[in-house]
Design brief:
about 190 residues; about 70% helix; flat; single chain; 2 domains; mainly alpha
């Protein structure tokens, strides 16, 4: 596994100008997780292009991280977090267990005494927002993002989940905000 990571580091490093500051052992250390997951050279090459700072952040200058292996490690952590978030969201959508008879009897009693809508009416969700409200929320989030403030979007992801935040602000903006937030944790000395 480590030999494969070394070989991949030697062959992929020249293809990615932003990774030139990393030594072969550093780059190998960063790529060993992808090798352990069973990724081949082509897949890792495509992934490295996708996480390139020029593509990821739209850098028009030739910015390169001083420690590319730490940048790659941060992207690996972000990918792992996004997988965990997707798993958490899918587990939240599970049906759960069937209600027992006592619960159904108590529910029937409440419905009879208060009416169906008084007991079971859900709070209006983000689906109830008007088109104008959505436009206002998206403009506010974009303006905050342009200033480098991702708190609004990150809070929506943490509180509502990725899919609801994507509905509110657009999946592209949510993805960029997540990447910008996690990229700030990289030490660029």
């Amino acid at each position: 596994m480590y030999g494969t990571a070394d070989r991949l580091a030697r062959s992929l490093r020249p293809l990615h100008p932003w990774a030139q500051h990393a030594t072969i052992p550093e780059l190998s250390w960063a790529l060993v997780d992808k090798v352990a997951e069973g990724w081949d050279e082509r897949s890792i090459n495509v992934w490295l292009r996708e996480i390139s700072p020029a593509i990821r952040f739209g850098c028009t200058t030739a910015w390169r991280p001083q420690r590319p292996h730490l940048y790659i490690a941060a992207q690996l952590r972000l990918d792992a977090w996004m997988r965990e978030e997707a798993l958490r969201r899918s587990s939240e959508n599970d049906e759960g267990s069937v209600p027992n008879q006592e619960f159904l009897a108590a529910l029937a009693t409440l419905r009879a005494s208060h009416g169906v809508h008084a007991v079971m009416s859900p709070l209006p969700g983000i689906e109830a927002l008007s088109e104008d409200d959505l436009i206002d929320l998206r403009q506010a989030a974009r303006a905050a993002y342009r200033r480098g403030d991702t708190a609004l979007i990150i809070n929506a992801v943490e509180e509502l989940g990725w899919s609801a935040a994507g509905f509110l602000y657009g999946t592209g903006l949510v993805d960029r905000a997540l990447r910008l937030t996690y990229a700030r944790r990289i030490c660029l000395h």
